[in-house]
Amino acid sequence: MNLYRLLQRRAANGQPVRVGLIGAGKFGSMFLSQVPTTPGLEVAAIADLSPDRARQACRNVGWTEEHIAATRFIDDAGAMIAFPEVEVVVEATGHAPAGIAHARRAIREGKHIVMVNVEADVLAGPLLAKEAEAAGVVYSLAYGDQPALIAELVDWARSCGFPVIAAGKGTKYRPEYHASTPDTVWGYYGLTPEQAKIGGMNPQMFNSFLDGTKSGIEMAAVANASGLTPAPDGLVFPPVGTHEMAEMLRPGNAGTLHHSGQVEVISSIHRDGSPVKNDLRWGVFVVFEAPNDYAARCFQEYGVVTDSSGRVSALYRPFHLIGLELNVSILSAALCKEPTGTPTGFRGDVVSTAKRDLKAGEMLDGEGGACVWGKLRTAADSLRLGGLPIGLANRVPLIRDVAAGQPVTWDDVRIDTADSAYQYRRAMEAAFPA
Hints:
The chain has 17 helices and 14 strands. By secondary structure, it is an alpha/beta fold. The chain folds into 3 domains: about 5-145 and about 325-335, Rossmann fold, CATH 3.40.50; about 145-175 and about 210-320, no CATH class; about 350-430, Type Iii Antifreeze Protein Isoform Hplc 12. Strand 5, helix 7 and strand 6 (about 140) form a beta-alpha-beta unit. It is globular.
């Protein structure tokens, strides 16, 4: 990689890479903490619903008052995107409809867009990437978050000539988590509501991490960026340690994988709650195969850990640092005109699935809420059943009952068809028939 060398050249020429950040929450704050120690990278402007809160976020991560004074703070993201000094836009709101609007505005303004907002990417990323390519700008997944890191591992394996069997990440999983709500979530984390409040932790956000929704969203992003595909019934969450990945993450081995070329999430605990040895809770992985006997012999000669056949191995990264690593995406876009992962097709989708028996007249409360969780499905299956994307399941009334465990469909809700996010999603479906 040559990013730092290229950045030094820009800095020496007095042409720093200038960023416009939308959303100064946790991810944004972690990115902001790295800016003062990255010569040649500047944050020209920050857009947040509360500019004062964004200024305080900068103070919290160690910015000086002089640095803060030299940065523009604004509550209008659209206006910030249009600032001429902004070269790369970072979308870090987590709100899917807003993310689509911001990305499209950035593309129209000729700005590269780094989409931290994976919810928006899964809702309509393939069409956003197509628009960006036509406009000559980069649309990129966010390095540091798991989808981009997984895409990097897949790219490494394929570039070396290794067929990819599976790729994904680790998490903590038990089937009962799918029914978790913001009212029950802290018990699963071993926290009291008071402790969570002191820590500034949002119960609905953390519930989306627990109930399987975030895992589904991230693996849909990986599928759409890599060409890997989900299993027909979604994620299995097998309990697998790093020492077992090569042996267990294969098709036909105790049913762990449905097919070769699959996205999957592995659990750090067994179904009874006991810990998995050598778990990968915070990390990412790729499982790959020696394409010939000579490569398999090289695996043995160089101490590569393989399955019993000697041909399958796994490479993993034990952690991800989200916003602390975001510079890689920003610099790759600005200096190399390359994304750190980008959608190339519509292969995976995340469909709203009832957590309990839902009744007509109830109002869905979105990702991490009390009504639905997001289940990973193949795009073809989602389109066939007319599944309601999790990114559009907030503040939407049901017009029909939906039984627990069943997908919520477009026909089950009353949705505003004039809404721009709805229309763009439908346009994406038409542009990428699965």
